[in-house]
Amino acid sequence: MSEVNDLVLVNALMRQALVAIEEVMGSKGLHAVLRTSKLDHYIDHLPPDDLSPAIQAADYARLNEAIEAFYGRGGRGMLQRVGKASFEYAIRNQSALFGLAGVALKMLPTQARIRFVLTRMAGAVKKANPQLLVDVEETDAGFAYVARVCSLCYGRHSDKPVCHLYVGSITEGVRWATGQVYQVQETQCIAKGDPCCRFVMTAPKA
Ligand SMILES: [Zn+2]
To answer: What residues contact residue 18 under an 8 Å CB cut-off, 6+ apart?
Structure first.
């Protein structure tokens, strides 16, 4: 087994991505990127919604790359929309995994809401996929979501950050928790040789 095939992900994560891609790109768009990423076997056959680690992370990363290639300059925005749809799917279908059910966020100040949603997102990712090293860092400058092993760019090389899907999910997660649209930027990316993928949040201008 080559190094690039060592990391595995759970079925539910691939299923979530495929549902989100179809929502954003339609079934024709989904089928097109499944073909170009050599994942045709998922056409009309989504993986089951379970936590069995049956997905190669390299396949998941290649699917992301195929969406970027399919849309060219629009790929980044499209992947962010897929990330937003993925978070919405998770809220709808995986709230037990996230530990989000019945939480009274409205009682909390904004910073606590952001801390809450980011740590729950990181917790759910790690619980489902223990090989993924994700954490939340909090400094005077604000919050950062940090992936030291990243499913999105696994095995990829690029001169620019490529984990746009995460940017969309984090933006939507913070919007869900606070009602505000924070600017989320991937300032470091493993695909371009950085030690981690780092997503930093900037509060909207008052
Ligand atoms: Zn990255």
So the answer is: 30, 42, 46, 47
Separation of 194 CA from ligand 1 center, angstroms? 9
Of the candidates 12, 94, 96, the residue with the CA atom closest to the CA atom of residue 49 = 12
Whether this prediction's pTM lies above 0.85 is answered by yes
Q: What pLDDT band is residue 98 in, cutting at 50, 70 and 90?
A: confident
CA of 147 to the centre of ligand 1 (A): 8
Helix axes 164-178, 57-71, angle to 10 degrees: 90
> How close is the Cα of 23 to the center of ligand 1, in Å?
23
Residue type for position 175: R
The reported pLDDT for the residue numbered 1 is 39
Residues 177 and 198: their CA atoms lie apart, in Å, by: 20
CA–centroid distance, 72 to ligand 1, in Å, is 18
What is the whole-number distance in angstroms between the Cα of residue 97 and the centre of ligand 1? 24
